[in-house]
Amino acid sequence: MPSLLIAGGRLLDPASGTDHPLDLAIAEGRIAAIGTPANPRLPHGPADRVIDAQGLLVTPGLIDPHVHLREPGHEHKETTASGAAAAARGGFTTVCCMPNTSPPLDTPELLRFIADRAASILASDLPACRVFPVAAATKGRKGDEPAEILLAAKAGAVAFSDDGDAIASAGVMNRVLTLVKQTGLAFMQHCQDPTMTRGGAMHAGEVALRLGLTGWPRAAEEIIAERDTRLALAVGARYHVQHISSAGTADILRRARATPQGQALITGEASPHHLTLTHHACESYNTNAKVNPPLREQVDVNALKEAVADGTITVLATDHAPHAADEKALPFEEAPMGMVGLETALPLYAEALVHAGAITWPRLIALLTINPARLCNLDALGLGRLAVGGPADITLIDPDLVWTVTPNELTSRSKNSPFLGRTLRGRAVATVVAGTVRHEHPR
Ligand code: DOR
Question: How confident is the model at residue 240 (pLDDT cuts 50, 70, 90)?
């Protein structure tokens, strides 16, 4: 494997608090040395390739703990390979894929199928990243009885979730949390009381009224988050709120994290679209803006940014949800919910949080590296940080590169993005996974 030197960049590693101009030497898939060019211990000479990182941020490989890769069952929307390629282009070196596939990932055999796919992708020369499966928490994702949670953990699950649906029954939720606690992994909840969202197509607000669409109230999310954070604290299980859309949910998370066990057990994530768009994106029945949970109002967007800034929300996740063009061409009520996100996430996070002055680049990188690594116990593999001897998963970011989102720019098999036509600032210009450059943007 060729050795690599990444020279002259601003090295940001939130896990160790590093923010300096430093070089990185990589050999045999691992970080061989970190130092200044003047440091004689840095093996400059023998590097097979030198990447000039002047003007770039050099960060641990970005980790997305919440993506949909559609395999098995919906390969026309995305495959593990096409999703991993899109992830690498977006700067992600690791993604965790959700189990709402067909069939759902609720058995050790299916988890091993994903692990095999992930291994073969990394063995190829294609743009790719690491892929870890999140296992279904209930059998068939039906919410009726817990899946084989202990076996799934042994088979490589990095978390549990019925994402796409919530576990509606408090009793089942309690049993799931009790089992998940024994694995040391986290449970991730898609907070949505289904009795409140039947027929709902978008946020319950003035745009839905004007468009004549059934609304989806904030309370549908908040009541599950409130119930679950109480259950998780009582059980002592790790619990994570996925794709927070409502200001009220951010408050619930803040209160839960303020309890004695809160910081250790309770976490939450925000997605790029909930940080940047409101329900107005659905005007003119734009199905690419139809997502679950729905885009809400400016007060919610502001509350999410504030929750990131004050440390309530500690993880960012795309909820990359590919859907085919013919499905998104259906009338708004019938079109599936979701949008692709892997290739546009980084500049959108930067726009919402860094350029807007809510947080600094080092804080943003923590939300995209060490924090999701800890959420999915991937820090135990050395992911999410830059350390000598650790895996050489690295992202090089040009924070000022301006580009326009077009369907041709997206390698995901689906193009259902509400950001098509938008000009964004910031881009991953190289993605290194286990010491191999898996994506490079021409500069
Ligand atoms: O909009 C969404 N789409 N939200 C989800 O939670 C699931 C996802 C999907 O699988 O399409």
Answer: very high
**In a mutational test of the pocket of ligand 1, which residue from 337, 340, 414 has the highest number of ligand atoms less than 8 Å from its CB?**
337
For domain 4-57+391-440, which CATH number applies: 3.30.160.620, 2.30.40.10, 3.40.50.300, 3.30.450.20? Answer: 2.30.40.10
Q: What is the pLDDT of residues 61-104, one digit of tens each?
A: 999 999 999 999 999 999 999 999 999 999 999 999 999 999 99
Higher pLDDT pick, 116 / 40: 116
Identify the active-site residue in 64, 162, 228, 319.
Answer: 319
Q: Is 319 among the residues known to form the active site?
A: yes
Task: Verify whether ligand 1 is closer than 6 Å to residue 6 (CB atom).
Answer: no
Residue length of the chain: 443
Q: How confident is the model at residue 40 (pLDDT cuts 50, 70, 90)?
A: very low
* pTM summary value: 0.98
Which residues have CB under 8 Å from 329's CB, separation 6+?
Answer: 287, 335
* Residue range 392-409: mean pLDDT, rounded: 97
Q: Is the CB of 68 under 6 A from ligand 1?
A: yes
SS3 151: helix
- Domain extent listing, the chain: 4-57+391-440, 61-381
Residue 275 CA to chain centroid, in angstroms? 14
CA dihedral over 83, 177, 312, 382, signed as positive or negative: negative
Q: How many CB atoms lie within 10 A of CB 45?
A: 6
- The domain at 61-381 falls in which architecture? Alpha-Beta Barrel (3.20)
CA angle (391, 394, 397) in 5-degree steps: 170
Q: Which of 64, 78, 282, 291 to mutate to test the pocket of ligand 1 (most atoms within 8 A of CB)?
A: 291
| Atom 4 in ligand 1: residue holding the nearest Cα | 292
8 A C-beta contact, residue 134 and residue 158: yes
- Give the chain's mean pLDDT: 96
| pLDDT of res. 43 | 57
Q: What mean pLDDT comes out for the span 147-168? A: 98
| Tokens 């949910």 found at | 249
Residue type (1 letter), 90: G
CB 381: neighbour CB atoms within 10 A?
Answer: 16
